[in-house]
Amino acid sequence: AQSVAQPEDQVNVAEGNPLTVKCTYSVSGNPYLFWYVQYPNRGLQFLLKYITGDNLVKGSYGFEAEFNKSQTSFHLKKPSALVSDSALYFCAVIGYNFNKFYFGSGTKLNVKP
Amino acid sequence: NAGVTQTPKFQVLKTGQSMTLQCAQDMNHNSMYWYRQDPGMGLRLIYYSASEGTTDKGEVPNGYNVSRLNKREFSLRLESAAPSQTSVYFCASPPSGSYNEQFFGPGTRLTVL
Q: Fewer CB atoms inside 10 A, N or C side of chain B?
């Protein structure tokens, strides 16, 4: 079965500091991993994805994610957080038949001025 | 392109009432999905349609029915609403292909009293 876990309900970081939002995965077969962001009262927006290749994936708004096969992790990172990055972040994995996405429970990121 | 649109944005129902949530996409995608979002539980798949004329159950299909009316439209029906169906409902659609991210609609916030 495919699944992802986000171990932190909330992450607090000061503006200008680096941020990390954690995600671990459990899949049968190759992992195809995604990060989405949700701003209040909005739908989810795609940030980045890992399919194959370079373990460091760059995405929208200065975000990047590091795929680590040995630790089965796909953590979202940004070198310098902005207050406007405050939102709900979801990790997701695509199912083995490519028809279904499985989402984590979400991590609320709070960036304080 | 409007992308993925959903109607209504908000709805309040009484227990036992029925309603249909509408979703449309103008991106000529084959697949469409319905999710519900509940606090601390991420997004859970209700139903999906891999192509026009086909529908399949997701993780939490009980109490719902769907219709893939044509390639553009995928509706979700609650025949007899229950308070446990109070949630935010999202429609999503990915481009064709195995590893593509989903595009999400703005959501419908449903309250069942």
A: N
Nearest to B91 by CA among B18, B17, B2: B2
Measured over the CA atoms of residue A11, residue A16, residue A20 and residue A21, the dihedral's sign is positive
Contact list, B31 vs chain A (CB under 8 Å): 99
Who's near B82: CB < 8 A, 6+ residues apart?
A: B15, B63, B112
Give the whole-angstrom CA distance, residue A47 versus residue B106: 17
From A10, A21, A9, select the one nearest A91 (Cα to Cα). Answer: A21
- Interface contact flag, B99 A45, Cβ < 8 Å: no
Which chain B residues touch A34 with a CB distance below 8 Å? 101
pLDDT by residue (tens digit) across A38-93? 998 888 999 999 998 899 999 999 999 999 999 999 999 999 999 999 999 999 99
Q: Do B106 and A44 touch (CB under 8 A)?
A: no
Average pLDDT for chain A: 93
